[in-house]
Design brief:
Number of helices: 12
Order of helices and strands: HEHEHEHEEHEHEHEHEHEHEHHE
Number of strands: 12
Structural class: alpha/beta
CATH topology of the largest domain: Rossmann fold
């Protein structure tokens, strides 16, 4: 009888031991690779989006942050490092970083934080059905460029020539074309200023001044972020009204900005990361386009430039800095 009891009890004891061992093993903490060209830490709005979904950095999520420091040649190297670290998902800022990540891995999911035309760049098949291992946000930069030109014309009715500051990369060809179309429709001449780095900024502003540009439009590009303050300072020095693409540029002294609502966009990126960590494939997550936009005006900068913002334009601003 004792032998029989032992025979029956042994399997149960083994199962109990296995379950106990599994319970004692720490859960694998998901790891996010965050690849950007600027900054010293992940975007705070993105981190808040993760927190809203229950993720706390260092507790139930780890973030491997890497920045190129504005040096695009480092993108492939850092993307390869993400693969070696075996992260669960890569969040990448711009077209350059997303492309580098795509070239480095066909299996690790990639979430774009903001690429103007991911279809034209071959990053996704379609917005509704991206396919492959990439999803994220398409920023609508070409369309927004047209709106920015319109706002400049409303603020400066006598405007006849606009300078367009843009990186010398193929990802901005569509944006340049759309901006040219918008400028022509308003009877404006567009002067293209392509720069490769901070050392070419003064020359670009000199060229704009020489061609008598009445305003400057900055392309929607985090490419410029490492020297954004220099652009704003040179715009003030040359008394050149400038339209930017993000609120931050206006908060630190720029004249105006029109672009996607960064808080909303980063929360959507966090939501996509959450879906991927829970098992959804990037191919099954549609690429989203911004749903919320904001127009910001700095009245202090306008006064320094001797500009009066028309009341009908000011009334449309989401934020006015005085």
């Amino acid at each position: 009888m004792k032998t029989k009891i032992l025979v029956y009890a042994l399997p149960a004891l083994i199962l109990a031991t296995i379950h106990l061992a599994e319970a004692q093993q720490p859960k694998k903490i998901p790891r996010i690779g965050y690849l950007t060209g600027v900054g010293l830490a992940p975007n705070e709005a993105f981190l808040q989006g993760l927190r809203d979904l229950g993720y706390v950095e260092g507790k139930n999520i780890l973030i491997e942050f890497r920045t190129t420091g504005g040096k695009s040649e480092r993108q492939p190297e850092l993307a390869a490092e993400m693969v070696r670290l075996k992260v669960d998902v890569i969040v990448a800022d711009t077209a350059g970083e997303v492309t580098a990540a795509k070239n480095a891995t066909a299996t690790i999911p990639i979430v774009m934080r903001g690429v103007a035309d991911p279809i034209a760049l071959g990053l996704v098949a379609t917005l509704a059905h991206p396919g492959g291992n990439i999803t994220g946000i398409a920023t609508l930069a070409p369309e927004l460029s047209g709106k920015r030109v319109e706002l400049l014309k409303e603020v400066i009715p006598k405007l006849s020539r606009v300078a367009f500051l843009t990186p010398p990369v193929k990802a901005f060809r569509t944006s340049i074309k759309e901006t040219e179309v918008a400028a022509q429709a308003l009877g404006l001449q567009l002067q293209i200023l392509q720069i490769r780095g901070a050392d070419e900024l003064e020359g670009a502003f000199d060229a704009a001044k020489k061609q008598r540009a009445g305003a400057l439009l900055q392309a929607q590009a985090t490419y410029f972020s490492p020297y954004q303050s220099s652009i704003i300072d040179l715009a003030a020095k040359n008394r050149l009204p400038t339209m930017y693409f993000n609120r931050r540029s206006v908060e630190i002294g720029g004249l105006m900005s029109y672009g996607r609502d960064g808080l909303y966009t980063n929360r959507r990126v966090a939501s996509m990361v959450d879906k991927i960590l829970k098992g959804t494939k990037p191919a099954d997550i549609p690429v989203e386009q911004p749903m919320k936009f904001e127009f910001v005006v700095n009245l202090k900068t306008a006064k320094q430039l001797g500009l009066t913002i028309p009341p009908n334009v000011l009334a449309r601003a989401d934020k006015v800095i005085k």
